[in-house]
Amino acid sequence: MTDHTIVYKKQTEMYDQMVSKQPSLMNVINDITSIEQLDVIDMGAGSGRITTILAPYVKSILALDSSTEMLQLIEKQLDCDDNINYKTQVADHRNIPAENESADLVVAGWSICYLGSSNVENNVHNIEVVMKEIMRVLREKGFVIIFETMGTGFETPNPPEFLKQYYSLLEEKYGFSHKWIRLDYSFDNIEQAEELTRFFFGNDLADKVVTGNLVTLPECAGVWWLEKET
């Protein structure tokens, strides 16, 4: 089993290469809310897959992550453009370092799951605290958009059992709208497909990639969104 904590601190470049093989999320986000001139918070920003595509168009963006090393990758990508208004900060989702009603959009990609998984102690409480923090920093009529996995290696949704409770809470308790999308990995060749899959997802899926010659690895992603009421 891959230790993602180590990945996010010690193998950031390889992680960034892997997620770069998926499609951009720009259109998905813009279909929910126009991003032009918004103040944005990216929770669990990772290597910047969302931050870097939004940054040129928004008024400001605050990229948060628990990994200093991941945030350094974002800084490396954005420091060359003086017109981009961004900040990075190490943070926990349960304590967002931002003022009340300071953001028009909060995005969280593949990150709340690490607190909300049913195999994490106090997961339901964690989700409640995170939701309160998101609502605290959002302005009226602002949006929160959450991305999470609905199954890697599957062509239709097949979410992990330990995430189903979290997903149900988003929809049933907190009132999020939801859809799923395909977000397949398109690798350059089978050697790269095996290397990157084995690196992050482990041997079982990597063996499936090799056996099936899956240069394109299917991935289903869930999208949850909610507008803060006035």
TrEMBL record:
It comes from the Bacteria. GO terms for biological process: methylation. Gene3D superfamilies: Vaccinia Virus protein VP39. SUPFAM superfamilies: S-adenosyl-L-methionine-dependent methyltransferases. Residues 42-146 form the Methyltransferase type domain. InterPro entries: Diverse_substrate_MTase (IPR051052), Methyltransf_11 (IPR013216), SAM-dependent_MTases_sf (IPR029063). This is Methyltransferase type 11. It comes from Halalkalibacter okhensis.
